[in-house]
Design a protein that fits this description.
The protein has 201 residues and is of the alpha/beta class. The protein has one domain. 51% of the residues lie in helices and 9% in strands. The protein contains 8 helices and 5 strands. Strands 1-4-5-3-2 form a 5-stranded mixed β-sheet. Helix 1 crosses helix 3, helix 2 packs across helix 3 and helix 3 crosses helix 5. The N terminus is likely disordered.
């Protein structure tokens, strides 16, 4: 069971045609407007990207996950092949990621400056996502009946037993998810970190 999605500020979303307020993506948005568990997550995401409505796309998310938050373009991409109820969970989670745009960009800026090690970067990104998991679980618990999903098993329910971030990171989060961010660091920030912190000979 994998996390609903990842956010990589340096990787654009891939695949899928944009869908506005009509069709399946519009239905997801209407469902969220019906119930968001008091999270106000759509408005928070909208505020984080400068007051424009977040784009919602059904397609093929980056990273092989159920969803992806494209911070650069202010949109979320949701796996077109996922069940509707999983898509609702993913929508909330990725909007939560979008709402933390400034936090993700702060971590990215520190990494680009060579100030974060591979594991520090991974933990910082996963910490933001952990908080967004809590938001998503809150919305799911409050809204699954209103969404018509009261009999659905949601992916993020697997993390509801984590006592805190440390417990989640050590005992619940898959290595493959951590490796996603570790690989981002390897591609984009390793050189800057090693220039600032030369490896000991």
């Amino acid at each position: 069971m994998c996390l609903s999605g990842c956010t990589d500020p340096d990787t654009p979303s891939s695949g899928g045609a944009a869908v506005g307020c009509a069709g399946p993506a519009g239905d997801l948005k209407k469902n969220l407007q019906k119930c968001d568990g008091g999270t106000d997550i759509y408005a928070k995401a909208k505020a984080a990207i400068g007051g424009k409505d977040p784009g919602i796309e059904l397609g093929t998310p980056a990273g092989g996950f159920d969803g992806h938050a494209d911070l650069q373009n202010g949109k979320v991409v949701i796996n077109k092949n996922s069940p509707k109820c999983t898509q609702m969970e993913t929508l909330v989670f990725e909007l939560a990621n979008l709402s933390k745009k400034a936090e993700f960009e702060r971590v990215t800026k520190e990494a680009k400056a060579g100030d974060l090690s591979r594991e520090d970067y991974t933990r910082a990104m996963e910490r933001i996502e952990y908080d967004n998991i809590q938001t998503t679980i809150k919305a799911v618990n409050a809204c699954k009946k209103a969404w018509g999903c009261d009999r659905h098993t949601f992916d993020l329910e697997a993390f509801s037993g984590a006592k805190n971030f440390e417990d989640y990171y050590k005992n619940y989060l898959a290595k493959s998810h951590k490796d996603y961010y570790r690989n981002v660091w390897d591609r984009n920030y390793k050189a800057a970190y090693e220039k600032k912190h030369p490896p000991k000979k």
